Amino acid sequence: MNRKNSSRLFSIAKKVLPGGVNSPVRAFNAVGGDPLFIKSAKGSRMTDVDGNEFIDYVASWGPLIFGHAHPEIVSAITRQAGLGTSYGASTELEIQLAEKVVAAMPSIEVVRMVNSGTEAVMSALRLARGITGRDKIVKFEGCYHGHGDSLLVKAGSGLVSLGIPECPGIVSSLAEKTLNLPYNNIDRVRELFDKEGKEIAALIVEPIGGNMGVVPPIPGFLSALREVTEKAGALLIFDEVITGFRVSLGGAQKHYGVNPDITCLGKIIGGGLPVGAYGGSRQVMDHISPVGSVYQAGTLSGNPLAMAAGNVMLDLLSKEGVYESLEQKSAKLCQGLRENVEELGIPAQFTRVGSMFSMFFTDQKIVDFETVKSCDTEFFKRYFNGLLEEGVYIAPSQFEAGFMSAVHTDEEINLTIKASRKALAAAQG
Ligand code: KE4
């Protein structure tokens, strides 16, 4: 495949951007070769600067559940841009999006818009520490909650893809306040809370792990987290930046029937524009300035463009049959991929919740970060590059999620299954 222009641009980019990228996971470090530079995208397909076209399962790392350049989202953004891109003042648009979030997410009565998932999580942690007067935070190994200082401790996503065990620059006195546990291990949660529960401000969890590949919660895991945090007077934070509006209109909390104290959102609610949000009960959220004294602010928070795009996105998602269709498409793809590996005798594990899914090249059952780390990342690297040659684009790391959109066609899913079989066979060597 001709990737001349991508390589040319990458060498120029490296002169002015760290590693030639604005986010490490795009750099293709885990899969080799120069990253693709994208020229355009439409529906389920992206075209790079060399004219190569790909069926896309990255979806900008989750936001584009209705595909690229959806006409209704594009026209909402275009229309709003003509009315102004940012006022630094309130608009009706932000009320409309907040009302949609409140109506959909079972635990949210009040929500604050910010500009990224990282900002949502940082704010949620500050809020939990402000409410409880406690310092300690509990998270799970392999979960990624953005690049806020307290969370870059044994985190997933780019840190595990790039093999960065600990991120330099985090003040040690802060890092010590972050306690890590193995995902899905209820006994270890109970043990820690028995010992230190009174010092813990919050436990934050991806209710479905999405940053070590997709790792679903085992039955009872989320309800145990709810019970343990309740008992200790600690807040339960669901980081639903990926799962919110992805696995159901009410996110993972609706899907599993467990309500957190604070929910972090991002990605999908911005319709492809920069956005984040955090919300909870009025009692919790009224601690946030200007009502309460926990300060959090943002120049572009609730900006009209992202609100306009998010409003259309949530309207599209509220239509009858959307999640059923996502389920059917995702099940069809994963069934095809499973048949491929079975025919070829390749050890692989499959995980999926709705339209987020992973194929792990290991014979170990996937339950946590340790089991995920048993994957054959060299095999994944060959598979990734083989798929790319066949015109299919997945996340350039074994430790990321795959995303189906509402606009992938059956024909594209069949093409993907065929491409995957060829890439698997080639990867076997
Ligand atoms: P952002 O600050 O990147 O908008 O969101 C951070 C974040 C928070 N919580 C979860 C569960 C997330 O998955 C993320 C960001 N996800 C990564 C990919 N898994 C974004 C891709 C990137 O870092 O470029």
Which series of helices and strands comes N to C? HEEEHHEHEHHEHEHEHEEHHHEEHHEEH
Shape: globular
Calculate the terminal CA-CA distance, rounded to whole Å: 19 Å
State the CATH architecture of the largest domain: 3-Layer(aba) Sandwich
Strand order of the largest sheet: 4-10-9-8-7-5-6
| Number of discrete domains | 2
- What is the overall number of helices? 15
Helix fraction, binned, reads: 25-40%
> Pairing-aware structural class of the strands and helices?
alpha/beta
The CATH superfamily of the largest domain turns out to be Type I PLP-dependent aspartate aminotransferase-like (Major domain)
Average pLDDT score: 97
**Total number of strands:** 14
Give a structural overview:
With 429 residues, this protein is an alpha/beta fold. The chain has two domains: 4-69 and 321-428, Aspartate Aminotransferase, domain 1, CATH 3.90.1150.10; 71-317, 3-Layer(aba) Sandwich (Aspartate Aminotransferase, domain 2), CATH 3.40.640. It has helices at 4-16, 71-83, 92-104, 117-132, 158-161, 172-175, 186-196, 221-232, 251-256, 282-285, 304-317, 322-344, 369-372, 377-389, 410-428, and strands at 38-42, 45-48, 53-56, 110-114, 136-140, 178-181, 200-205, 235-239, 262-266, 276-280, 349-353, 356-360, 392-393, 402-403. Strands 4-10-9-8-7-5-6 form a seven-stranded mixed β-sheet, with helices on both faces. It has a four-stranded mixed β-sheet with strand order 1-2-3-13. Helix 7 (186-196) packs parallel to helix 8. The chain is globular, with a radius of gyration of 21 Å. The protein starts with a helix and ends with a helix. Ligand KE4 binds at residues 23, 25, 61, 116-118, 121, 144-146, 157-158, 206, 210-211, 239, 241-242, 266, 276, 400.
